[in-house]
């Protein structure tokens, strides 16, 4: 993929006369470096930036800092990682004891959103919201080191909260932006705009994973065409490389138009 292409209109509303800003296909805060220039009006840039920031800062802020994902605010990152965090466990006397460690010592414990296959690909009604599974993988080696250091057992570790709907909207925005990058904003019939812009509709109808679950692809983004129940759809496979523990996601982004091909 080339580093940047031009949309020359807002990929969410079609506005082309107002000032337009660039749009990272995968948010820069999530490790993205593919850019659509002149692709977002202020209104919709603010909307997408808000939910991407919630995911990248509130949920994965510490993870991003630890892994060195690019950031515009390097000073904030330094302050974040230097903060002291209280942990509580049971000491040798059998009593509850609280100690403080810095964030950069805190065990890796990422929250992972695991999604079923998109409902559209299963023939499920769009009115049905499928279940979402949340898992957290604790770095047991680092946890054991902290336990031995302070002589504590049964330490209570906590992770950042996560809103699965936010993750689903981020995946939908990423897929839509990539389809616009590959085909142009007018190169396909989009299906995700209500979910991205207005946060309405069943997210799990269009956005999901694979069953059985698949590992991430080598390429972060792949656009493919598939025929589902006699209709052709465009699907984007998404690998969020900033976080290798995440599964491979797939998003039904739209319907192909006759004669439209990747740019």
Can you walk me through this structure?
With 263 residues, the chain is α+β, with helices and mostly antiparallel strands. It has eight helices and 13 strands. Strands 9, 10, 11, 12 and 13 form a five-stranded antiparallel sheet that branches. A three-stranded mixed sheet has the order 1-3-2. Strands 5-4-8 form a three-stranded antiparallel sheet, with helices on one face. A hairpin with a 5-residue loop joins strand 4 (84-90) and strand 5 (96-102). Helix 1 (42-59) crosses helix 2 and helix 1 crosses helix 6 (164-183). The radius of gyration is 21 Å and the shape is globular. The N and C termini lie close together (10 Å). The mean pLDDT is 89.
List its salient traits.
single chain, 263 residues, alpha+beta, 5-stranded antiparallel β-sheet, 3-stranded mixed β-sheet, 8 helices, 30% helix, globular
The overall pLDDT, averaged over residues, is 89
Please estimate the helix content. 25-40%
SSE order, as H and E? EEEHHHEEEHEHEHEHHEEEE
Continuous helix count: 8
Ends distance? 10 Å
Any idea what the radius of gyration is? 21 Å
- % residues in beta strands: 25-35%
Question: Which consecutive residue ranges, at least 5 long each, have pLDDT under 50?
Answer: none
How is the secondary structure organized here?
Elements: E1 4-6, E2 21-24, E3 35-40, H1 42-59, H2 61-67, H3 74-82, E4 84-90, E5 96-102, E6 111-114, H4 119-122, E7 133-136, H5 140-150, E8 153-156, H6 164-183, E9 188-190, H7 193-198, H8 203-206, E10 207-208, E11 221-228, E12 231-238, E13 249-256
Parallel strand pairs: 1-3
Antiparallel strand pairs: 2-3, 4-5, 4-8, 6-7, 9-13, 10-13, 11-12, 12-13
Helix pairs in contact: 1-2, 1-6
